[in-house]
Each structure stands twice: as structure tokens, then as C-alpha cells.
């Protein structure tokens, strides 16, 4: 049986979006790690443990990554066979993920970013980097633009775009690095963004976060083969920043074509 709920549980930062006998989909807030990492040894709270709580304490299996500062749709398998099947689907490019992001400047209406990436970003202090590059492609479509009368980088006003992003490949920080590559970095990105713009939004809205959210995922159900589309609306902290646009942007959500 299918269950689509958008259900929040007291004390649990995850919001359940979808559940059946094989899958559990949740909304992950920005700032929450997926699982334990050697980079953040001091952290004691992870999305994986909260997903287990939603699953009645039973083990769940993460089938893809969602960076710590990125919010949105996160999918778990509830059994090893489903995890294996979905893992193969991700590797074969059969799962389509969609994100929305607030970026600096006015992008083109749509485009393909075909720019190879190394496993990690280059340290500019090093003249030589032995890492091989791997193909990386991301597609984007502009949803809205705005111009606010605030001088941030020497111009009398500042321009921003809301874009939909769809990665064709799955490299580390791919969307963040690709948007930097085309000179439209994501607001709130402390690694690849623009510091002055990040500071402006943090001060104006009282919240410092990466303005990147995973909003949709399309795939074939690993057990039934049924085509599925899951949606996760951007959370309140994300949508609050979107008030720099007109009301048409807010009407993009909620989506009603889930499963």
C-alpha cells in the first residue's frame, strides 16, 4: 500500500513525504548530515538515525547523497534488495533529480552546463593537481528574475534568478560548482559563492543557509515498475528568502502530481 503524507513527527527534523513497503522518502532540513562523517567527528545527529526512527527503529538504507547544507527530498530503501535495485538505477542514470536554487545575476532562460569536474575542487594555492577530471553535465531553466535596489558589489542594484537544476551526472558538489562556473553562484554557498551576497541575505533574513533545495525525483518503482514522481516543497527558511520575487514564485508550490 502507498502512503503520501507530508507528516512531521515531534522531535524529528525529518518530514515524511512518502512511504510504502519498500521506500521511505523524507524532507531533510539544511544543516543536517546524512550519516556520520570523518570530516565532522563532533556531530551526533544524522538524517539516517532520524529516518530509522520514522521506520519504527528498523534499519533503512540511503540510496543517494544530499549535501549537508542542501535541504529537500531524501530517499531511503527499507530493505537490502530495494537498496541494491535503486543503487543500480542511480548508477545507470535512470533516476532524474530536480532542484531549485537562488543564484546571483540573471541567467539565460535555459542551458546545458557541460563542464568536467575533478573529485574535489582545486586548491588555488597548488599549481599542479593530479586529479583526473570526469564528465559532468547539468541542465538549468530560469523560473524567475528579480532586481533589488541594494548595492552589494559596486552596482546600484543587485540581480538574482530562481532556477530549476537537473544534474545528468552525479559529481561531488556538481550543481554548486557548475553554477559558479557560469558566473551565477548559489546564494549562501560558502565554498563556491560570493561572500558579500551571502552576508546580505544572512543579515536581511536572519538565516545563513545554502539556497539549494532538492524538490523532485522521478524513477521507476524498484518492485512494481510503476513510474513515480515524488515532490518536496522548499521549507519555510527557503521560501522566506524567495519573497524578494513576486507572488508568482510562491505559487510554484505545492505540487499536486505526486505519485
Descriptive report:
The chain has 259 residues and is of the alpha+beta class. The protein has a single domain (3-125, 133-250), classed as 2-Layer Sandwich (Pseudouridine synthase), CATH 3.30.2350. It has 6 helices and 11 strands. It has helices at 47-54, 80-91, 174-181, 195-205, 236-241, 247-250, and strands at residues 3-8, 15-19, 23-28, 61-62, 71-77, 96-104, 110-114, 137-148, 158-167, 212-220, 227-231. Strands 1, 2, 3, 4, 5, 6, 7, 8, 9, 10 and 11 form an 11-stranded mixed beta sheet that branches. It starts with a strand and ends in a 9-residue tail after the last helix.
**Tally of individual domains:** 1
- Helix proportion: 10-25%
Shape: globular
Structural class by sheet pairing and helices: alpha+beta
Q: What is the top-level CATH class?
A: Alpha Beta
Percent of residues in beta strands: 25-35%
Number of separate helices: 6
Write a concise keyword list for the protein shown above.
6 helices, single chain, Pseudouridine synthase, 259 residues, alpha+beta, 19% helix, eleven-stranded mixed beta sheet
Short description:
With 259 residues, the protein is of the alpha+beta class.
Task: List the topology elements.
Layout: E1 3-8, E2 15-19, E3 23-28, H1 47-54, E4 61-62, E5 71-77, H2 80-91, E6 96-104, E7 110-114, E8 137-148, E9 158-167, H3 174-181, H4 195-205, E10 212-220, E11 227-231, H5 236-241, H6 247-250
Parallel strand pairs: 5-10
Antiparallel strand pairs: 1-2, 2-3, 3-5, 4-5, 6-9, 6-10, 7-8, 8-9, 10-11
Amino acid at each position: 500500500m502507498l502512503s503520501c503524507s507530508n507528516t512531521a513527527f515531534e522531535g524529528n527534523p525529518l518530514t515524511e513525504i512518502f512511504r510504502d513497503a519498500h521506500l521511505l522518502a523524507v524532507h531533510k532540513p539544511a544543516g543536517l548530515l546524512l550519516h556520520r562523517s570523518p570530516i565532522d567527528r563532533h556531530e551526533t545527529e544524522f538524517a539516517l538515525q532520524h529516518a530509522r526512527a520514522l521506520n519504527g527503529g528498523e534499519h533503512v538504507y540511503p540510496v543517494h547523497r544530499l549535501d549537508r547544507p542542501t535541504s529537500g527530498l531524501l530517499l531511503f530503501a527499507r530493505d537490502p534488495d530495494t537498496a541494491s535495485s535503486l543503487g543500480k538505477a542511480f548508477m545507470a542514470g535512470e533516476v532524474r533529480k530536480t532542484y531549485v536554487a537562488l543564484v546571483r545575476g540573471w541567467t539565460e532562460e535555459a542551458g546545458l552546463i557541460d563542464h568536467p569536474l575533478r573529485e574535489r575542487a582545486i586548491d588555488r594555492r597548488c599549481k599542479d593537481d593530479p586529479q583526473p577530471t570526469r564528465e559532468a553535465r547539468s541542465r538549468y531553466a530560469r523560473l524567475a528574475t528579480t532586481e533589488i535596489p541594494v548595492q552589494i558589489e559596486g552596482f546600484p542594484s543587485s540581480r538574482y534568478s530562481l532556477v530549476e537544476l537537473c544534474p545528468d551526472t552525479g559529481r561531488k558538489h556538481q550543481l554548486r560548482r557548475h553554477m559558479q562556473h557560469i558566473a551565477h553562484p548559489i546564494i549562501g554557498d560558502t565554498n563556491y559563492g560570493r561572500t558579500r551576497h551571502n552576508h546580505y541575505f544572512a543579515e536581511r533574513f536572519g538565516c545563513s543557509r545554502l539556497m539549494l533545495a532538492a524538490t523532485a525525483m522521478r524513477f521507476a518503482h524498484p518492485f512494481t515498475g510503476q513510474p513515480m514522481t515524488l515532490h518536496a516543497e522548499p521549507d519555510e527558511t527557503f521560501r522566506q528568502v524567495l519573497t524578494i520575487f513576486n507572488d508568482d514564485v510562491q505559487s510554484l508550490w505545492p505540487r499536486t502530481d505526486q505519485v
